[in-house]
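In this section we walk through a basic example: taking a raw amino acid sequence and producing a predicted 3D structure, encoded as discrete structure tokens. The instruction is simple. Fold the sequence below.
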Amino acid sequence: MLPLHDGQLRLLVLNHIVSQFQEGSGSDWQVEGFAPEQLDCLRQLSMSDIKGLASMRHPQIRLVLDGASFATGLRNLALLKDMKCLQNYFIRHGASPVMMKSFFKIPESVAISHLRAQGHKVQRGRPQLPPRIIRDRIHRFWVAHEQLDIRTRYYRLHQTFPSFTLHALSGVVSELKKLE
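The resulting token sequence is shown next.
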């Protein structure tokens, strides 16, 4: 448990507890070592009394972090950061607005403005495709990596064929899907 000594933090915690009780969502709390009468007393304190209580050494207020949920939060944060990096990669390397909407749930208008900010000309329709021999290599790569999720697959495809935009690569993949 982490003791809170800062008066502002203590005031924030006490205000939060009181507001939870006033909204009715704190009524089912089981506060360790608290008698129901103490919680009722806290609920009835004026703001100036709460400020005074927060500035005193007692009561001791300690913060407890749940280790398992903290680890889950850190994993989720890492996933969000990775997703944002991948999203930026797709913008930098010329993904189409349709791809951005499909893969990252970004409105097409936002994707268009991001692409234009990166200096990409936003084109509708089918992009110019690479020569047939390269398209065949792209097709083989795509089929060989079918176990990957779609975003990772396109990322790796672009890593292998970096001289083409993601939009052009998606045109080749669409061509393959039509051939199948």
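Looking at the output, two observations stand out. Residues 73-117 form one domain. The longest helix spans residues 67-92. In the next section we compare this with other chains.
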